[in-house]
TrEMBL record:
Keyword Nucleotide-binding: yes
The organism of origin for this protein: Mucilaginibacter terrigena
Domain of life: Bacteria
Keywords: ATP-binding, Nucleotide-binding, Transport
Residues spanning the signal sequence: none
Family of this protein: Belongs to the ABC transporter superfamily.
Domain ABC transporter: 4-225
Protein name: ABC transporter ATP-binding protein
Lineage per the UniProt record: Bacteria, Pseudomonadati, Bacteroidota, Sphingobacteriia, Sphingobacteriales
GO function terms (MF aspect): ATP binding; ATP hydrolysis activity
Length: 225
């Protein structure tokens, strides 16, 4: 299983905001929590890990793969659930997942059907597959986002502030799903909710104003927070 290594990553936006100030983290397999208040730099770091933006300097490695310079390779084994997952309200889950699977390169119809069926079952949406996404609850939409992010069996799953707007039952269900997935791959969860991290993540970092304040095993850190 691969670790994710982040070394001396910096990012300053065009408006002069220094969003990431020399970030270094070692993220082991399992579930990892990136905890910090609004504006701390979480989304900037998550988008950078997801190869959607480049840092001004620094290195990022997933196992042997250079995340900044081997983007295509990383993208093949990367899943990303953005903070606001836009869905097409008139499509059904089944239709849209099939469409994303085609984009991901599943050209064989039978193979695609097998993969999408497995993902809809894993995310507990199989019974709802013929419903339009516009009628989905927040939790169902987030689980659909996970199904999309899992296409291609990613080694790295990046989930940005996923529990905002979920009711308590949906939140627990969603976090348990992520926890199951973390047995197969690195799962990084960004959140401003301490319970998201303390309940499920084995390791955590706290970020504020673009700087890492603490990097620790959760069971050792929670008493101090
Ligand atoms: P530009 O290329 O004009 O410099 P920016 O990098 O400032 O653009 O912004 C890129 C995107 O990020 C835009 O969609 C913008 O709305 C958004 N954005 C700009 N400033 C902020 C901010 N402070 N926080 C979050 N998003 C921002
Ligand atoms: P978080 O996800 O922890 O809320 P962000 O990474 O979104 O933090 O933002 C970190 C800082 O960078 C904030 O001050 C935010 O306003 C700023 N920022 C984010 N995106 C942009 C952008 N595109 N252009 C300019 N400033 C941005």
């Amino acid at each position: 299983k691969d670790c994710l290594l982040i070394r001396n990553v910096c990012k300053t936006y065009a408006n002069g905001v220094q969003a990431l100030n020399n970030i270094s983290l070692t993220i082991p397999p399992g579930m990892y929590g990136l905890l910090g208040p609004n504006g701390a730099g979480k989304s900037t770091l998550m988008r950078t890990l997801a190869t959607l933006q480049e840092p001004d300097q620094g290195q990022i490695f997933l196992g042997e793969t250079d995340v900044i310079n081997q983007k295509e390779e990383v993208r093949r084994t990367l899943g990303y659930l953005p903070q606001e997952f836009g869905v097409y309200p008139k499509a059904t889950a089944e239709e849209l997942l099939d469409y994303f699977a085609v984009l991901k390169g599943f050209t064989n119809r039978a193979a695609r059907k097998e993969v999408t069926e497995g993902l809809l079952k894993q995310t507990n949406l199989w019974d709802k597959r013929k419903q339009k996404l516009g009628g989905y609850s927040g939790g169902m939409r987030q689980r659909f986002g996970v199904a999309v992010a899992l296409l291609g069996n990613p080694k790295l799953l990046i989930v940005d502030e996923p529990t905002a707007g979920l009711d308590p039952a949906e939140r627990v269900r969603f976090l348990n799903l992520l926890s199951e997935l973390s047995e197969q791959s690195v799962v990084i969860l960004s959140t401003h909710i301490i319970e998201d991290v303390s309940e499920l993540c084995t390791n955590l970092a706290i970020i504020n104003k673009g700087t890492i304040l603490l990097e620790a095993q959760t069971d050792k850190a929670v008493a101090d927070i």
